């Protein structure tokens, strides 16, 4: 189990969050939602153990596969080399990747549907392709806790569906604890067992996704009306009402 108790992170004089207690049971899938700048990345990094807490405590595993938000640090390694880098904790400081590490990387790229781009330079991939390569890297790491920071932000609708499928498959394998942030409540409703809302005024709400993602909570979260529309035989549709 991963746990943050009375956790807080402060940058200079500014508290990003405080008094935050979060319990993540093994093998659950958790979605994290909140408005821009509210502190989701900071919280994910704290959960991963990369961000030092200013107060409170973290307990839980440290071997975490972390998929960062898509950034500008483009590297000219090939896609498969980027994925093989995910094997580094299994190889040790001086180890170099062996045939079996490349096989694992190959399988991970196949899982995200990018095998055909294995030897293309990472810096020449599209944003969505890069995002999927980073997901493959976390899969290849062998970590059983995988944290994904907005993994769908650059994905088209088909690839969002593929990503949700990958998350569902990982859940079915019953080996992984998954935590992802998103600005799309529908993603949480589709695949997350539990959702954590970082509300604008500083409170945090955690609970079963269908129970937490109410119209009232989502409207408070984003400051615009958000509706949940029943879809016969399917998960409710989440519809923001843009003005
Ligand atoms: N190392 C840092 N030093 C100072 N301020 C920081 C640092 N890292 C993040 N912040 C600030 O903390 C706040 C929360 O940032 P964070 O990236 O966690 O938000 P977020 O919810 O992930 O945002 P978004 O949805 O826009 O990605 C922001 O205002 C950011 O500028």
TrEMBL record:
Belongs to the ABC transporter superfamily. SUPFAM superfamilies: P-loop containing nucleoside triphosphate hydrolases (SSF52540). Residues 2-225 form the ABC transporter domain. The keyword Nucleotide-binding applies. Gene3D superfamilies: P-loop containing nucleotide triphosphate hydrolases. PROSITE patterns: ABC_TRANSPORTER_1 (PS00211), ABC_TRANSPORTER_2 (PS50893). GO terms for biological process: zinc ion transport. InterPro entries: AAA+_ATPase, ABC_transporter-like_ATP-bd, ABC_transporter-like_CS, Metal_Ion_Import_ABC, P-loop_NTPase. This is ABC transporter. Keywords: ATP-binding, Ion transport, Nucleotide-binding, Transport, Zinc, Zinc transport. GO terms for molecular function: ATP binding; ATP hydrolysis activity. PANTHER family: METAL TRANSPORT SYSTEM ATP-BINDING PROTEIN TM_0124-RELATED, MOLYBDATE IMPORT ATP-BINDING PROTEIN MOLC.
